[in-house]
Amino acid sequence: MKILVVRRDNIGDLVLTTPVFRALREKFPEARIDAFVNSYNAAVLEGHPDVDTVHSYTKGKHRSGFFPGWLERLRQMLRLRAERYDHVVIATPGVHPRQIRFARFLAPDHITANVPAGWKMFGVDQPVEYLGKDRHHLLMTYRIVQPFGITAEPSAPRLAFPSPPKAKGEPPTIAVHVSARKPSSRWPEERYVALMRAIHERSPTRFRLFWAPGAEDDARHPGDDGKARRILDATRGLPVEAIETRELPALIAGLAACDAIVCSDGGAMHLAAALGKPVVCFFGDSESQVWRPWGVEHRLLQPESLDVADVTVEQALAAYEELRPAIEKR
Questions:
Q1: pLDDT tens column, 206-255
Q2: Which of 82, 222, 274, 330 shows the greatest Cβ crowding within 10 Å of its Cβ?
Q3: 10 lies in some domain
Q4: Beta bridge mates, 242
């Protein structure tokens, strides 16, 4: 049996899809299970034991040229069609006619996808009724395995990146990721500085500083290089290591070497959770019931205003202290 799972979204979405691959592998241990993802998130599945081959494509906005990009996309689609998959699984929650058309082009024996209640969609012979955003995104995604007769509860998301060994008595290393796409999820940089100082004063702790790379005034790919420099200047005297991660594998490997993370809602939060790291996370105007960390101890800070600027350093420190026993056991 040959199965292709399609998940072309952001980093966190793909992380939360890893239980689907685990469930399919447990149900069909001899099957070939492939993934079709985008070039931006493909590293999430690097070396994953439940995935045989990762096929990735580059989104249009990231291609170097229109015609060369589309020509290569056509060639890739023809190569995938030639694989003659038995099943194509559209793992993205929601109803996605474009992805279903893509699946039909591949001419598999079966197509599994979400469909609206009471609808039939051409080509989808293994439909899953889409119920809307009524639960965590992982659970919404995991419903796609129902037509395969899988009834087991989902496993926790996991990545194949190992955590490096740690010497006995070595102080904890805390990842501090200071970037967020939504303005309402951006905790002020001076509070990150104050939090790191407060944590270190209470117990010897090392920190690794992560951020979205790029200039703050870059219209196409704005980043937080300036913010990171200011935080590093303000934390002189503390054991803070700057981790510049211009590629996703570097971010994952950097997080794997930490014992916990303080961050806003986003891809880094889901990566750290999938690596088994305790999480202190800030949620602004986001659906915390849908996107909270899954499968690890965590403390979620979301003020009534839905703006993380209203979260105090004292609140963040109290959340960290609640997790400290779990962090120091690692």
A1: 999 999 999 887 766 789 999 999 999 999 999 999 999 999 999 999 99
A2: 274
A3: yes
A4: 209
